[in-house]
């Protein structure tokens, strides 16, 4: 079986032998001391060592060289969810390819068994369901889940073949709205849809994509403005991105403030 593996690393694997546990992989690549001690500190080491699923989600059968990577291509893995590829054609971007949001830093390294696509993050947690199943199962996003349901956007955002970005305000973000505004929105589907679609992009912009962007067109029609000092520090208009969550039909960015379209005033 030919394998492509994408692992946390700073350098190529010279002589990969199969099968490997994820810890074997981590020990064979990059700056192993830093790698293992960092993952240990994060409490990830033990979880990954026992969690074959995470390794399987990094393994692809068949050779998939970078030349075959296209935007929003879904690559099936040995035993995990598909890997979503994104290609960002942005001139100033240092990283233009991502795999489930992880940046490809060392493409097409050749190992004995196939290609190694070296990425800068472990793809974890793994995508688990659509954008809608994520917001309905996340306690911090229950107000958003209610709003999405009221606006009749559930079918769209659960489309299995979708390629969406959703900026997802937390319950706390909704509670920062002036008194009465949320109740008013929940009673007026036109206004609610206007606000919610301003949180949706019809393309997948993960943290890497956002980091290299400045203006992005929303489904509502108006643009949002992106300002980022790093991939971990991203502002969308006046909202801070708190977390990035990969889903099977796109990416969700948890934000701390509700985005209001420029034409709306409360
Ligand atoms: C490897 O990690 C050690 C400890 O953090 C660091 O001192 C060293 O510079 C790193 N080496 C490389 C090649 O990154
Ligand atoms: C995946 O989603 C399902 C359904 O929402 C949930 O029951 C399960 O705990 C999730 N698994 C993980 C690993 O988060
Ligand atoms: C919800 O928010 C709290 C506080 O910010 C955080 O500790 C927790 O991990 C969040 N839960 C989920 C499911 O994201
Ligand atoms: C998502 O992107 C893929 C790859 O370009 C494409 O095949 C698919 O049709 C897109 N989905 C939708 C709903 O447009
Ligand atoms: C609902 O919202 C729309 C768009 O903001 C507005 O034009 C309309 O007057 C509102 N309807 C009611 C009944 O308030
Ligand atoms: C909105 O964003 C798009 C995509 O970046 C850009 O081409 C367009 O010029 C922007 N429009 C405005 C009014 O800023």
From TrEMBL:
Biological process according to GO: cell adhesion; extracellular matrix organization
GO cellular component, one term: extracellular matrix
Signal peptide: 1-16
Gene Ontology molecular functions: cell adhesion molecule binding
UniProt keyword annotations, A-Z: Signal
Highest taxon listed in the record's lineage: Eukaryota
Pfam families: Fasciclin
The name this protein goes by in its record: TGFBI protein
Source organism (scientific name): Branchiostoma lanceolatum
